[in-house]
Design a protein that fits this description.
Two copies of one chain form a homodimer. Chain A has 207 residues and is α/β, with parallel strands linked by helices. Chain A has two domains: 4-74, Arc Repressor Mutant, subunit A; 80-192, Rossmann fold (3-Layer(aba) Sandwich). Chain A is 43% helix and 19% strand. Chain A is built from eight helices and nine strands. A seven-stranded mixed sheet of chain A has the order 5-6-4-3-7-8-9. A two-stranded antiparallel ribbon of chain A has the order 1-2. In chain A, strand 5 and strand 6 form a beta hairpin. In chain A, helix 1 packs across helix 4 (63-74) and helix 2 packs across helix 3 (41-48). The model of chain A has no long low-confidence stretch (mean pLDDT 91). The complex binds nicotinamide-adenine-dinucleotide (2 copies). One nicotinamide-adenine-dinucleotide (NAD) sits between chains A (85-91, 111-114, 117, 130, 148-151, 153, 157, 172-174, 190-191) and B (93-94, 97, 99).
């Protein structure tokens, strides 16, 4: 399997190579790909061996070939359907963001608990009441749950998604979810990200 | 200095202990703190040595004492002032989020380029035009820049913030920023987070 840091870099290279394709650039060296990704060239070459791509010395890599190989290994053509629970500030920003379709994500159902939001139409979807989560999700092709509800509601929402057969959770609430084995959780704790940055900033600030 | 994984966990413990204080819980064991944080008890004890806290065997830690020690070591009482550039979907969600004040962050200036947004009032702030970034930020106590503009504009915005004296950047745009030594950048690449989750999901899915 591909180690996590390499995997994250491969997704980064994919986005850079897409921009090259749009700019009609056909060949790229590991030095240039490295410069655009903020990674050194030797690391780029090592990462690309995971998708069995070797550049030609002096010429580099074919952009088109790299994209095909990355799409296959990273499964980017695969569609992943997701339910988003909690259509508040963050949920709305995530739902409306076109960038996730690059990676094959489609949000196909929205849920909330607030009577003022339930029944509203957002884009092509209607916001369902959370009580219908298991009924709607278990009858769908949804494999992923995006949790953008307040911290106190997150565990109950996770339980509902798991009961409906979802095996992957993308959690933005600042709590540690307890899930059975076989369920994959990715926590995005934005506040901790910020706190770590300002901590480093204070330590490096001029005394 | 504190290693990054321990540092991120200390912020997580801080949030859990705050909830304990609100619930009038005065003592907590490393087992219980570990269970709430999703970390094993031995790791909790090891992390807490960074803030020179040792529990009493059989009794545990005083919640109040841990909070005081964490606030001091993590510098949580320190105010960090930030400028947010790009008051769109994500920028608005981040600006309105009350959770960041726990970690001493205050967003004190907003910037955008869209004439329809410039001059609008959001909460207590007026949205300034990006052309006034250096003038306003260099005359302020702002140390941190939050970048929520589209990818094509992010490098120019980073340059402006650095020119204005900012030394820390929290970047949400999916590009690798090039910055001079001494400037700290934290990238939050949400799309890569999602892509990695759906990759693991596909690999573990039933064949
Ligand atoms: N806004 C940010 O920038 C930000 C940053 C970091 C973390 N977060 C975290 O993301 C989560 C969402 O934050 P937000 O700012 O969007 O909050 P918000 O209050 O704007 O939105 C929360 C939404 O969840 C809904 N909800 C509440 N309980 C529910 C339940 N049981 N079932 C279904 N829906 C429910 C609410 O009706 C609301 O629409 C929170 O856990 C927050 O801590 C947000
Ligand atoms: N919305 C999400 O959930 C999400 C998820 C992942 C990544 N991102 C990234 O975050 C960034 C913001 O995304 P969004 O969804 O909020 O986009 P958006 O288009 O809703 O907002 C972008 C804002 O930036 C402003 N802007 C553009 N150029 C500018 C410049 N030169 N100076 C100042 N302001 C400028 C625009 O006027 C707009 O208000 C993007 O880089 C995006 O790729 C967003």
């Amino acid at each position: 399997t591909i180690p996590k840091p390499s995997l994250e870099r491969l997704f980064l290279y994919y986005r850079i190579l897409e921009a090259c394709r749009e700019g009609r650039k056909e060949v790229i060296s590991s030095e240039e790909l490295g410069r655009r990704a903020g990674v050194d060239a030797a690391q780029v070459r090592k990462d690309l061996t995971y998708i069995s791509q070797c550049g030609r010395p002096g010429i580099g890599y074919q952009v088109g070939e790299l994209l095909v190989a990355l799409e296959a290994v990273l499964g980017l053509k695969r569609q992943t359907h997701a339910a988003l629970v909690g259509v508040g500030r963050l949920g709305t920003a995530i739902h409306n963001y076109p960038g996730f379709t690059h990676f094959g994500l489609r949000i196909t159902a929205l849920f909330d608990i607030d009577p003022a939001r339930v029944g509203q139409r957002v884009g092509e979807h209607e916001i369902y009441h959370i009580d219908r989560l298991v009924e709607i999700v278990s009858a769908s092709t949804i494999q992923l749950g995006i949790i953008t509800v307040p911290a106190h509601a997150a565990q109950a929402v996770a339980n509902g998604l798991i009961a409906a057969g979802v095996r992957g959770l993308w959690n933005f609430a600042p709590v540690t979810l307890r899930v059975p084995p076989g369920v994959i959780v990715r926590n995005e704790d934005l506040a901790v990200g910020l706190a770590t940055l300002s901590w480093h900033l204070a330590r490096s600030a001029k005394p």
